[in-house]
Amino acid sequence: MGIGKRAWQVAGAAAGGASLFGGGVAIGRLLRLDSQRGDYRKAWENHNLATLDRLRQLDEHPEGERPYLIVALGDSSVQGMGASRITESYPARLASAINAQLDREVLLLNLSLSGATIESVELTQVPQMRGLGLLDGPWSPDLVTLTIGGNDVMAEDMAPGQFEERLRRVLGFLPAHALVSTIPSFGIMPQESRAQDMSDRIGAAVADSDAHLVDLRSLTQEYSLPTYTFAYHAADFFHPNSAAYAKWAQLFADAWAKSRREAAPVVEDAPQWDMLSARVAQSEYDD
């Protein structure tokens, strides 16, 4: 989910044009947040290349038990946009928690893209998996996560029925026991009813598959509007912040553990994820 026109409108409405940030400070923070898209994309690209190189090395020189491989699909929330550091994104925090629980190496490939819709997951991210040999090759992932729908909610030309059809096709491609999340609350935004409709459709599609639902929507609806708006959002009042992603990661960890019938790891207790890249992106402001 990139910082689009409507997100800027939400930020302005939430700030109320008052002195919470001060006009210039608010705009500066929004611009720095927007720069994360490029920084985080490059950091994940470098990490993915290093991870793929690690997989190639293991193909040539096996080292005992194969690593536990996680593949993350989706939009900018999967990139971690809004988090203070890329290692505070929910895929990184989830991978770290799983790594702490398992007595084996854990590798993470993040194929998500800022601005992604269900169409781009179906037509670009799933084909990427196939091209990398992750669907029918030797490195079928142990876990796939999918968070998508926020940009589809904002896209007026995306009918909820079409969204569901594409999602069902995507689920048909993914390995068993994928973790698929609902769409977080849109709060007071007029698209909230669409977010509810599409989330209901995600739940129905997941129920008809062998995937597992991660109910981000129910989590975000538990908060009061001020808490949700100011404690769990980045400067644009649209993307989650580090605190929100920690909550998301725990929900994913809970669903992962439930699918395995074991105790869930505690995300907050897990160490910082070790990115396989020399470049670890970081935003220029505190949440």
Key features of this structure:
Rossmann fold, alpha/beta
Describe the structure.
With 287 residues, this protein is an alpha/beta fold. The protein is globular and about 55 Å long. The protein has helices spanning 5-15, 23-60, 76-79, 90-101, 118-131, 150-154, 160-173, 192-207, 216-221, 225-231, 242-260; strands at residues 68-74, 106-110, 143-147, 179-181, 212-214. It has one domain: SGNH hydrolase (Rossmann fold). The model is unreliable at 5-25 (pLDDT under 50). Helix 8 (192-207) links the parallel strand 4 (179-181) and strand 5 (212-214). Helix content is 51%, strand content 8%. The chain starts with a helix and ends in a 27-residue tail after the last helix. Helix 4 packs across helix 11, helix 5 (118-131) runs parallel beside helix 7 and helix 7 runs parallel beside helix 8. Strands 2-1-3-4-5 form a five-stranded parallel β-sheet, sandwiched between helices. It is built from eleven helices and five strands.
Quickly describe the structure.
With 287 residues, this protein is an alpha/beta fold. The chain has helices at residues 5-15, 23-60, 76-79, 90-101, 118-131, 150-154, 160-173, 192-207, 216-221, 225-231, 242-260, and strands at 68-74, 106-110, 143-147, 179-181, 212-214.
The ordered H/E elements are HHEHHEHEHHEHEHHH
The CATH homologous superfamily is named: SGNH hydrolase
Tertiary shape: globular
CATH class descriptor: Alpha Beta
> In angstroms, what is the radius of gyration?
18 Å
Residue fraction in strands: 5-15%
How far apart are the termini? 18 Å
Average pLDDT taken over every residue: 89
* Largest sheet features: 5 strands, parallel
